[in-house]
Amino acid sequence: MKVMQQTAMAPAVREDAVRLARGQFFGEGRAPEAGVSPLIVDSWLRCRERGMAADDRAEAEHAGRLQLAEAREGNRGLLDYASGVMEHVFEQIRASGSLVILSDPQGMILHSLGDAEFVDRASRVALQPGACWSEAARGTNAIGTAIVTEAPTVVLGGEHYLDRNGFLSCTAAPIRDPRGALAGVLDVSCEQRMHQRHSLGLVRLSVQLIEKRLFEAEFANHILVAFHERPEYVGSLQEGLVAVTPEGHLAGANSIAREWIGRRVECGGGASFAELFRQGLGKVVDRAMNSSDALIRLGLRDGSEIHVQLRSLRPRFTAFGSAQAGEGMRTFAAESSPAAVGSAPPVSAPAPVSAPHGPITLHDLATGDAGIGRAVDRARRILGKDIPLLIQGESGVGKELFAQAFHNSGPRADKTFVALNCAAVPETLIESELFGYVGGAFTGARKEGALGKIQQANGGTLFLDEIGDMPLGMQARLLRVLQERCVTPVGSVKSIPVDISLVCATHRVLRDAVARGEFREDLYYRVNSLTVTLPALRERSDIRCIVERILAAECREAGLQGVWIGDEVMRFVERHGWPGNVRQLQNVIRVAVALLDEGEREIRPEHLPEDLFLADPVDGGKTPPAAHAGPLVAAASAALPLAADAPPISAAKRLDQLEIELIERVMREVGGNLSAAARTLGVSRNRLYRKLGRAGGVS
Ligand SMILES: Nc1ncnc2c1ncn2[C@@H]1O[C@H](COP(=O)(O)OP(=O)(O)OP(=O)(O)O)[C@@H](O)[C@H]1O
């Protein structure tokens, strides 16, 4: 790979050489033959062709707040996976007064982390979020030039086209998405004199890590097969990685695997696991399970060998279909693998079906959905800080679970987590529930008095569910507690100091309640310092993972092993609207597990509540109606009404056909752009990608 850099000379010599080259290019108008690399000269020529002058001081493009917010939203996956890596990079170079920068594929800075002093100086050249650092906007620079050349790029001092950027040293590398397209650029910038020679290695490694995370997130519901010709490279950033469907079809490959497959396809390989690796997936899985070694050796058609490790990030399979079940693999009740992306364990011998062990943490909740990932990431940032958290979301989305996970992930984890549902406690009792009371405070009160929830939570976390339903009078008292950090029990004059972390939840839009005068504005500002919104189940791209986690927990409860969700039910679950969210899904699975006959292991449609499946004259009511089948099917039904004389086909097939036809039409309309198609269809990219995979549209 060509790399644009020019760092081998001593700094003073190099600076002189660059100065000379600039003189030739800008003064004499001829391309320098020495002093700067040909790649820098090419970039200077491109800038000159655009009519740019070295002393140009015109304000370049800078996005407004709204535009930046939109760009960040549009690149949410990239931001989520890159920001952790950026923090790590920043830690490595903290002492060098640097900025770590992430840009989108057009060069707009989405996020930056940096040394305060340098940030100050950098901001004068607009090296900050919202600024566009494309070559067209700011001349030769590492971000913009890396985008044009699609290669890691170092631009030092005077190599920058614009004079005003001459004090910078910038090192950037392009980040590719799981399909090989440019997803963004990672850059490290500092003052020229602070340039570190290892920056390029650091940036390239970090980009590999981000790409790996993007890949694993994109294919979270696939089986990941890691391989390398040398066993010690499996598990490293040099490993080839392919994502395979349970049926053994290749769904994606990282850049190393793409290159490897490219060579094999020329040698007669193909696009399925069996064609590439000469053995069926089922057989390889069986071998992996029967082997005490995490790596298995596979012979290839050309006589060479590779070392393979099977990983399934999510779900982590605990039992597999054997070779007789086609060469595929079946999803059994799985041990949920909340172990986040990037730390997937190798497939091992069957383990007992189980949900996450130990107290649930934020890490466990990040199961691949971008919305949840965002909420987890934001909440994680305030762990251990005295900042109240407000969790919003429809009923049953897991707000309380999130609050618990937040508590368990922070420094108060070994203290108490106390929950009070403000909507469930009668108004007359909320006061004593919250603040406690002293003996004889009111008729019916216990002689010895009682501790209120606030005092019970002392040292730990107080979770106030449905805070929007708290009576106004109580709100004033709660506000006082939060301000004064003291609680006065009912009937007492003594205030008792308390130290609580406050987490509130609501399914209402609190701001509207404030506007209606139902919620105090001052308390509103107090409780919503950080708000996270949990997505409804129907919007989530990790439904499979949640299903498997709940199934594992229910099976454990029922003492069952080896239970799995049949394909038809899984399809329905993924499409259903789930008005009751995770709670409803949990109830459905609990009932389904209870309805299994002795020895029966597959959950089929007849195990689901009757009212979930409306009667369907064509296939006996086993297929969910379009109205229940999620936005994609609803859109398909509206857009592609069947002709009156259409042949009688099963409803399941009809829905699938409608979906596929609609997807194909929309994909054509948006020129194959998956994100645009997902937006038009009102589904997540992941969901659309899965559907394309099923329709055979993903290679
Ligand atoms: N990611 C998840 N995986 C497995 N189970 C979950 C998940 N999220 C929520 N649940 C389960 O769903 C049920 C509902 O969750 P929870 O009570 O936390 O939702 P909620 O939004 O707080 O509900 P409400 O709005 O009624 O207060 C709980 O039994 C919880 O354990």
Automatic annotation (TrEMBL):
<dbReference type="Pfam" id="PF02954">
    <property type="entry name" value="HTH_8"/>
</dbReference>
<dbReference type="GO" id="GO:0006355">
    <property type="term" value="P:regulation of DNA-templated transcription"/>
</dbReference>
<dbReference type="InterPro" id="IPR025662">
    <property type="entry name" value="Sigma_54_int_dom_ATP-bd_1"/>
</dbReference>
<keyword id="KW-0067">ATP-binding</keyword>
<dbReference type="InterPro" id="IPR025943">
    <property type="entry name" value="Sigma_54_int_dom_ATP-bd_2"/>
</dbReference>
<dbReference type="InterPro" id="IPR058031">
    <property type="entry name" value="AAA_lid_NorR"/>
</dbReference>
<keyword id="KW-0805">Transcription regulation</keyword>
<feature type="domain" description="Sigma-54 factor interaction">
    <location>
        <begin position="365"/>
        <end position="594"/>
    </location>
</feature>
<dbReference type="InterPro" id="IPR025944">
    <property type="entry name" value="Sigma_54_int_dom_CS"/>
</dbReference>
<dbReference type="InterPro" id="IPR002197">
    <property type="entry name" value="HTH_Fis"/>
</dbReference>
<dbReference type="GO" id="GO:0005524">
    <property type="term" value="F:ATP binding"/>
</dbReference>
<dbReference type="InterPro" id="IPR003593">
    <property type="entry name" value="AAA+_ATPase"/>
</dbReference>
<dbReference type="GO" id="GO:0043565">
    <property type="term" value="F:sequence-specific DNA binding"/>
</dbReference>
<keyword id="KW-0238">DNA-binding</keyword>
<dbReference type="InterPro" id="IPR003018">
    <property type="entry name" value="GAF"/>
</dbReference>
<protein>
    <submittedName>
        <fullName>GAF modulated sigma54 specific transcriptional regulator, Fis family</fullName>
    </submittedName>
</protein>
<keyword id="KW-0804">Transcription</keyword>
<dbReference type="Pfam" id="PF25601">
    <property type="entry name" value="AAA_lid_14"/>
</dbReference>
<dbReference type="InterPro" id="IPR002078">
    <property type="entry name" value="Sigma_54_int"/>
</dbReference>
<dbReference type="Pfam" id="PF01590">
    <property type="entry name" value="GAF"/>
</dbReference>
<dbReference type="Pfam" id="PF00158">
    <property type="entry name" value="Sigma54_activat"/>
</dbReference>
<dbReference type="InterPro" id="IPR009057">
    <property type="entry name" value="Homeodomain-like_sf"/>
</dbReference>
<keyword id="KW-0547">Nucleotide-binding</keyword>
<dbReference type="InterPro" id="IPR027417">
    <property type="entry name" value="P-loop_NTPase"/>
</dbReference>
<dbReference type="InterPro" id="IPR029016">
    <property type="entry name" value="GAF-like_dom_sf"/>
</dbReference>
